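User: Hi! I'm a student and our assignment asks us to look at how structure tokens line up with a sequence. Could you show me two examples?

Assistant: Happy to help. In each example below, the sequence comes first and the structure tokens follow. Example one:
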Amino acid sequence: MLGTHTGAIPANLRRLNERTIIGLLSRLGAASRADLAKAAGMSQPTSGKIICALQKLGIVQELNAAEIEATFENAGNPARMGRPATLMRLNPTISRFIAIQIEVAETSITAVPLAVRQEDVWSAVFPTGSTPREWQQRLRQTRRGIAVKGLWGIVASIPGIVNEKTGRVVFSPNLHWTEQADIPSLIREIWPLPIILNQEIRALALGHLIMHPHDTDFLLVDFDQGVGGAIVEGGRLYRNPLPLNGELGHTPVRDNQRRCGCGAIGCVETLLSRRGLVKSYAESGAPAPHAWQALMSHLEKNGVPEWLGKSLDAMGIIIAGSLNVLGLRQVVVTGSLTEFPPAVLQRLSLAIQQGAMWARFGEVTCKAAPRRRMAGLVAAGMDRLLFPVEDPDSLDTLPPSEPQLRTASKQP
């Protein structure tokens, strides 16, 4: 990793060990050297060498006495006698990546350290535009406000069908100009650094996994300009044979005659995307203005209308079918539906449970969660830039959970 050397440990094993230590700290926030060695399944001398190397690179750091006391108090631990153990954490002050979130309407950008915040905070936002050069020009203008040295790479998320190995967009129903653009080359003309391109929903799923490590098996469904999904099984992102991932939004719904950006007629995302929801609200005879805020106010006052209930029921059937095929029982919903009153998600959850086979014998859950795209992008950067291990199946995962880490606590 970036030229680190730890004695006689073979390079690939060294990278895996480094990755394990950083993954644990990313998940736990802070932990002692001894507990890190135990959780990682390493000897203390081996883990000690790894941690020292990471310290020299400024990747991890020790907490001071006041921070250690605060960590124990936040974790609810009782007062302790004697000298407290030294705790390690990822460095929260030095930015290592430029994170770029490309969406249909807007592009967001910021410099990020390895220790990301609980919530996404972007330093600049600009209109995405309708051509590659227009987007690049705005990105170049934004770059002037991000004067950061010592960066390791660029991590970007983008909608559509994305070949993450080649860094190309194969097809993007809602942002067609990206299909012909070489996004990594456009970025590299501004920042001559390694670039990782991620499918946006996969980045969200990886971010949720980082922030909620005990959610090791779930289907994440995001609602925004489109509707998409990503699969996490056994604490890792599912790797598809094709660069096609969780395209739930392009499942047709009976009696839906709306044309989708993908070229088909009847896709469910034409009903449950932001644009589709506002359009359905207008067609229901709602008074002007037909806008997002007006729709939310309507739902607050009147509950779930019939037209929305039918769309949610159709989406529930689609999600339930996916759970039946994948053998999963947890759904994580992010995006625009989480802005609505709880009754909306409850209607979707009921439809999922009615169609999910596992609900006949056990519990099937559907919960709302905030978007954690920044955490997902940082995790992808660590996986693919810092730890270029030979086995691709080892990527996009977290170390096994260790519930007995007494000194662990999430970062503020």
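Example two works the same way, sequence first and then tokens:
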Amino acid sequence: MPSGWYGGYGWGFEYASSQRIGDWPIVHVCSGVDPITMRPRVAKGVIAIGNIAVGVLAIGGIACGLVTLGGVSLGLLFALGGLAIGVGLSMGGVAVGSIAVGGVAAGLVYAIGGAAFGPAILDARRCDEAARVFLQRWFGTVPVNCR
């Protein structure tokens, strides 16, 4: 087995790279249940991938970190997921953040979505000038109902 690989014996698996930054491995991948504690394994690393992941780049069912992708995604810079919550850009079915894009979007600055809530919104009913300018600047285009 590769270095850092821990067999799961039917309980899941875990891989942690030998290279580390502080206490965190560069890459940590795991899933399943820890057979000793009987608790879900949590991937913690610079790049963390697992059912529950915490890292600079976190990918998982529940993901928490700087840049996150997951079912429930909590990201400081960027969050993408079914439920995406973050300080920066959040994109998902339900998105909450400074800039929120989603089916239901709640933005502290901009909100873009089917139902949007925030200071500058673009949704099915309304297109604020600030949201239009934001879209024009970053994407070079705006929806037809925003002209």
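Here is something you could point out in your write-up. The chain is about 5% helix and 65% strand.
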